[in-house]
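Example for tutorial group B:
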């Protein structure tokens, strides 16, 4: 049953897992809002997995599974001069473009699909950041919209076909010695997908599907080894806090979990241009794929 449960609840947007939030996207200086102005960030991500984990963290050995995802994710954000409780008000919008190919062949049924298109957009008009000598803080409320490519007949569409509301907060430490550390914490509150198909073996049924609420964080720590170049470690953690629901009924054992860790490097090309390269390797996954990410993130200031 556990293997079939994972089969039935495969994430709609695998690059984010069953959480609509993009796990692992943030790292260095995540809580450091730059000076007022307009900034462009580009994320280029590649995710690969050939392991599908059940509710006990065991690999589903009777399933031939493989997923590859490439995502081009531009983000535009604006920091204003407006002060709220002493912090600068900011806003942002994220527009993911995703190519996803997935194969899943259990003993009964299965599919092979590939899709290319717009993913679920993320936006927020409410981000506030504060600064001190060593620490920086930021809080926000993100809205993840069901803009992604979605067809209920697809087993693995790009979009999740539901809204997600994500309050989040982050803190960064930057020490004069060159040591730095950051963490960003988020909480996902999902709405219902009222146009879902439950795939159980060769049986299909239209259902209302609600993903349970989830807690997650991205983290990073490192040190400046030479002027402008920092090396460190990064990763993320996700834990489902509620079971999913189908037509209002709880699906026991459907909570996801995953932890990832890997190396990260940041280079200041100039004062307004930063590039980050990192790899993240997943472990301890439950009810989801377990694989690895490669990210290239570039920030430009105007």
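The residue assignment follows.
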């Amino acid at each position: 049953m556990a293997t079939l449960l994972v089969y039935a609840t495969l994430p709609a947007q695998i690059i984010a897992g069953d959480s609509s939030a993009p796990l692992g996207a943030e790292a260095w200086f995540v809580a450091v809002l730059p000076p007022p102005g307009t900034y462009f960030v580009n994320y280029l991500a590649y995710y690969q997995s050939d392991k599908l984990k059940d509710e006990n963290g065991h690999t589903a050995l009777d399933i031939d599974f493989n997923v590859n995802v490439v995502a081009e994710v531009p983000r535009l954000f604006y920091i204003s001069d407006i002060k709220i409780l002493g912090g600068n008000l900011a806003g942002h919008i994220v527009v993911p473009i995703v190519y996803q190919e997935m194969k899943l062949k259990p003993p009964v049924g299965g599919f092979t699909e590939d899709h290319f298109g717009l993913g679920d957009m993320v936006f927020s008009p409410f981000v506030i950041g504060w600064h001190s000598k060593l620490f920086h803080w930021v809080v926000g409320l993100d809205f993840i919209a069901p803009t992604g490519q979605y067809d209920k007949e697809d087993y693995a569409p790009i979009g999740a076909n539901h809204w997600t509301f994500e309050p989040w907060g982050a803190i960064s430490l930057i020490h004069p010695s060159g040591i730095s550390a950051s963490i960003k914490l988020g909480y996902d509150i999902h709405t219902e997908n009222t146009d879902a198909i439950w795939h159980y073996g060769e049986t299909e049924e239209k259902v209302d599907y609600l993903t349970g609420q989830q807690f997650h964080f991205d983290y990073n720590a490192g040190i400046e080894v030479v002027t402008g170049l920092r090396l460190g470690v990064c990763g993320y953690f996700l834990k489902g806090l509620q079971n999913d629901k189908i037509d209002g009924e709880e699906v026991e054992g459907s909570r996801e979990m995953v932890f990832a860790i890997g190396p990260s490097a940041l280079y200041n090309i100039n004062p307004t241009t930063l590039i980050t390269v990192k790899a993240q390797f997943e472990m301890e996954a439950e009810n989801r794929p377990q694989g690895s990410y490669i990210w290239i993130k570039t920030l430009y200031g105007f």
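The helical segments are 2-8. Compare this with the pattern of hydrophobic and polar residues in the output above.
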